[in-house]
Amino acid sequence: MLTASLGGSLTKWRRAADVTQTDYDRYRDRYGEELERAVAFAGTSHDFFTRAKAEELMRLARLHLGDPARVDAVDVGCGIGLTDRHLASRFRALTGTDVSPGVLETAARENPGVRYELAERGRLPFDDGAFHLAFAVCVVQVVVPEERSRFVAELARVTRPGGLVLVFEHNPYNPLTRLVVHRCEFGEDARMLGMAEAERLFDENGVTTVDRGFLLLFPSRRKRVLALERALRHLPLGAQYYVAARPQ
Asked: Is residue 216 in some structural domain?
């Protein structure tokens, strides 16, 4: 099956001199419409995919961190807060951050229970070890390759020892995923990376992978279908994948 969310996204995490990246503030009022258009041939809404990632995120949080009600989490590259609306009341505290003020305004309006903070380019606006869980949904792909290691290092920096750093990314080997990215107007900056590359970025920043898998293989979240999908999670078939890691 295919994916929906092209970017969480950390919309302009890049050097100030680089003007080639998409300005997502221009899309904030039609972000959802554009995603719906990109996945229209799938026969389901983009929210299906967003919700599926949110549920997988919660499963991983419970598995590796325990009760989510005791977890402080941060959504790095939150964009207009599409993922946050499925998570807002499920953690002890949820914070979102992005470098585009316009998308943060939209996110804050749609998710009043979430705290949003504007990020600087290249640095997150939080103290070291501020969170139990730092996650980024389809964000690394829109970070220019030479800045990706720094981005992952920032995810690790704001995560407490024993906490969890979690990224979701598109599976570049899934042809329908590639089609969705191609169809999306603001997919021009996406440079998809495979799971091995994501793990390498973690490894070079001293973050140890503890879980990985592919998801969104089937257009259904029924229990039996989901159980089958999770049984096949190590095969590179799903539309997206996740890598979860612990900072040293």
From this structure: yes
For the segment 9-21, the average pLDDT, to the nearest whole number, is 40
Query: What's the pTM value of the predicted model, to 2 decimals?
Result: 0.85
Query: What's the token pair of residue 209?
Result: 């992978």
Residue 94 lies in a domain: yes
Given a contact cutoff of 8 angstroms between Cβ atoms, the answer to whether 9 and 24 are in contact is yes
Tokens of 200: 């390498």
Strand partners, 135: 75, 166
199 assigned to some structural domain: yes
Which of 10-24, 117-131, 151-165, 232-246 bottoms out in mean pLDDT, i.e. has the lowest?
10-24
Question: 94: burial class by Cβ within 10 Å (0-12, 13-18, 19+)?
Answer: buried
Please tell me the total count of domains within the chain. 1
* Amino acid at site 150: R
The answer to whether 170 and 205 are in contact (CB under 8 A) is: no
CATH number at residue 128: 3.40.50.150
Burial class (CB in 10 A: 0-12, 13-18, 19+), 230: middle
pLDDT, one tens digit per residue, over 103-159 is: 999 999 999 999 999 998 889 999 999 999 999 999 999 899 999 999 999 999 999
Strands, sheet with 131-137, edge to edge from the N-terminal-most edge strand: 115-118, 93-98, 72-76, 131-137, 159-170, 240-247, 207-215
Q: Which two tokens stand for residue 217?
A: 């293989």
| Mean pLDDT of all residues in 200-209 | 97
**Cα angle at 174 between 166 and 148, to 5 degrees?**
40
Q: Domain for residue 17, yes or no?
A: no
Q: Helices in the chain by DSSP H: which ranges?
A: 31-38, 46-65, 101-110, 148-157, 175-183, 195-204, 223-231
